[in-house]
Amino acid sequence: MIIQDKMPARIAHVYTQRLESLVSSERKAAVAGGDREDLDRVEISSEALTMQKSIEAAMAAEDVRWEKVMHLRQQIEQGKYAIPIHALAQRLLAEG
């Protein structure tokens, strides 16, 4: 699992850009057609709503060990995090 604190911001940025692009093209079409009702309409996809709820739930979770998360993030950003392959393999085999 890759833990990145910038992931929600990147997702929001991409989503915002896409939304702005769609709104801009719809606005241009509405103005050209003389239809002013469609200028202020915004639709959010069900996938975006699900993603937003998931991010909010993860951020509000009480069982998250934030100190450990921050330590792992720092290691990943510095390129010092190594996946403990043997421990991972043992856990996978034990769960099997």
Salient structural properties:
96 residues; 4 helices; 0% strand
Can you give a write-up of this model?
- The protein has 96 residues and is mostly helical.
- The chain has two domains: 1-62; 65-96, no CATH class.
- Helix content is 68%, strand content 0%.
- It has four helices and no strands.
- The chain has helices at residues 7-33, 46-60, 66-77, 85-95.
- The longest helix has 27 residues, at 7-33.
- It starts with 6 loop residues before the first helix and ends with a helix.
- The model has no long low-confidence stretch (mean pLDDT 79).
Total number of distinct structural domains: 2
Order of helices and strands: HHHH
Q: List the uncertain runs.
A: none
Q: How many helical elements? A: 4
SS class = mainly alpha
Please specify the SSE layout and strand pairing.
Elements: H1 7-33, H2 46-60, H3 66-77, H4 85-95
Summarize the structure.
With 96 residues, the chain is mostly helical. The protein has helices spanning 7-33, 46-60, 66-77, 85-95.
